[in-house]
Design goal:
Blueprint (H helix, E strand, L loop, with lengths): L7 H5 L15 E5 L6 H14 L7 E4 L8 H31 L13 E5 L5 H6 L7 H9 L9 H6 L3 H11 L3
Parallel strand pairs: 1-2, 1-3
Helix pairs in contact: 2-7
């Protein structure tokens, strides 16, 4: 993506900070990438947090969803970059707001609070992972996804969003759950 691969300071340069809104509850936010079947990864992440960090309470939990998809070959490759850029932009806005708020004495913040940010991403390429599970799909669904080009692409991201096979979802949960 356009924002990926550059340092945080380079990404923040030239950006106007968004207007923060007051919140009396926002102490800690978690932002999860994903969409479609990738929600299973998020389940694993949340389960791992509950198990390993039981005292951690997130006031804000948000994620990125894929929406409508027209073709795997075109949009499948672009979706990760687009949605990760959106996620990165949201994270940068939060960091910028936090930076500005930190310069204001707490008594003068008018209810605005610094929010801790945790961004979680899969440790594996889920598009690559799903290709191992594609042959297990029902024949009609395999025909449909192959006609969209999921077999020809090097990273079948569309298929990773549409796959709801139990064994694939279990693998996503395992990837998302820390050991």
């Amino acid at each position: 993506g356009r924002a990926r691969g550059r340092g945080l300071s380079a990404q923040l340069r030239g950006r106007v900070a968004p207007e923060p809104t007051p919140s009396s509850r926002a102490d800690l936010a978690i932002v999860l990438t994903g969409g479609g079947a990738r929600a299973a990864y998020q389940v694993g992440v949340l389960r791992g947090i509950a198990r390993h960090l039981p005292q951690t309470r997130f006031n804000i939990i948000t994620g990125v969803s894929a929406g409508a998809i027209n073709a795997a070959q075109i949009l499948g490759q672009l979706m990760n970059a687009i949605f990760l850029d959106v996620l990165d932009e949201d994270a940068l806005r939060l960091l910028r707001s936090n930076s500005l708020l930190a310069k204001i004495p707490p008594a003068e913040r008018q209810g605005y609070r610094v929010v801790d940010l945790v961004v979680l991403r899969p440790s594996q390429d889920l598009g690559q992972l799903v290709s191992r599970y594609e042959p297990r799909l029902p024949r009609v669904f395999r025909f449909f996804t192959r006609s969209l080009g999921t077999r020809e692409t090097t990273s079948p991201d569309l298929l990773s969003l549409l796959m709801f096979q139990a064994d694939y979802l279990q693998k996503l949960i395992e990837i998302g759950e820390p050991r």
